[in-house]
Amino acid sequence: MAPTSGGQYHWVSMLAPAKIRKGLSYVAGWLTLAGWQASVGSGAYLTGTLVQGMLILTQPSYVPQNWHGTLLYWAVVIFCIIINIAAGWLLPKFEGGLLILHILGFFAVLIPLLTLGPKGDTKEVFTTFYNLGEWPTQGLSFCIGIMGSVFAFVGGDGAIHMSEEIQNAALVVPRSIMTGIMINGSLGFGMILTVLYRAGDIDAALAENPAFPILAIFKHATNSTAGAAVLASLLFCLATSATVGLLASSSRVFWAFSRDKGLPGWRTLSKVSERTSIPVNSVVATGLIASILALVNIGSSTAFNGIISVSIAGLFSSYLLVAGLLLYRRCTGGIVPASSISTDISTEFESTKVVWGPWRIPGILGIANNVFACTYLSFVLFFSFWPSFAAVSPQNMNWSILVTGFVAIFSGLYYLIWAKKTYHGPIVEVEPRYAHETRA
């Protein structure tokens, strides 16, 4: 319907009632931006600390330090910035090459685990449930523990924020998203089953490498430290490429929100390089903010994880806003087929209608899909604020509710105090189809 770099906040502006449109879209923009910014930090942190896990694997005497992880984090961020701003053609070529490594790497990890790893018991794999958080019921433990799997799907809207750099984005972007989910969903499910059947003693793997037990599983399966290091290197390459993509999409949200005058310093952040057509300032700003946040990790990894935990809450709350408004519009007849719009769009009534795009689920199936989306998102958002352990302490507390609440309250207050003077909703540029039309 509207493939734009702004994504969620743009759609909220389209779908929300007129009275709350501007303010709600502004808050949605900040939640989206905070979620994406935290995702960049999460990707860089996981990639950098993966190197520390590899050091533990190959050098058992190594004692990991927070500042080591921060330096590795910065190295990953710098690499991602270079890939994103070097040239307009480099990012798609880099991602295309990594797609090949992604597919080949899947088999490079799967085959050794299947052929060399210890054989697991089917009953144990499918009927053993852990409650390491010591929650009152196994069901509650499941609802809280599933957030680890939810995190793997954070950033599913990444391709959307590249829409303004893609031809025929209204079809290409949704096809790309669904293709990615089908490919990675199938490969991921196969890999999960393989790891579960060939994991061996999970408790021993956790004790040997608490941060990355998968590396200990590699070692026990291959019975070789070198072999495990090679498999871990594949994970490192893929994690790095994922962070490159996270930075690219995050910077486009930065750029789009700045173009719409929603951020401080929007004049600078909205500039696009004439040489590469890349929003270099936004890319650098995204990397710089992520790097500054990493300083927190030196003092306290708990505080740092509290900040980046907004990646789930921030993004999923923005998804919920859009899904809820889409359901509202659909049920009230607020979205019409393109064929029902007259060729003369000079009237205000016609020009403000929301029109279906070429990709949708029609009728009752579409409503059911939207209802499921809202239900699932509400479930995820609710449990994303729960701590991992029933016995809560400052060290294991989930601070995402504090960070998410701060972002929502700050953005609302900032809008009321200042931004409402400059932010008037997404700026839409329409190529005229007829002689009497103008650019809006």
Automatic annotation (TrEMBL):
User: Which segment of the chain is annotated as a signal peptide?
Assistant: none
- Compartments, record wording: Membrane
Concerning Pfam families, the annotation shows: AA_permease_2
According to the record, the segments passing through the membrane are: 24-51, 71-91, 98-117, 137-156, 177-197, 228-257, 278-298, 304-328, 363-386, 398-417
Entry's Gene Ontology molecular function annotations: transmembrane transporter activity
Sections of the chain in a coiled coil: none
Q: Which UniProt keywords apply?
A: Membrane, Transmembrane, Transmembrane helix, Transport
GO cellular component, alphabetical, reads: membrane
Main location per the UniProt record: membrane
Q: Record's InterPro entries? A: AA/rel_permease1
Membrane topology value: Multi-pass membrane protein
Quote the PANTHER family the UniProt record gives: AMINO-ACID PERMEASE BAT1, TRANSPORTER, PUTATIVE (EUROFUNG)-RELATED
In its UniProt entry, what is this protein called?
GABA permease-like protein
- Which species? Karstenula rhodostoma CBS 690.94
Read off the lineage from the record.
Answer: Eukaryota, Fungi, Dikarya, Ascomycota, Pezizomycotina
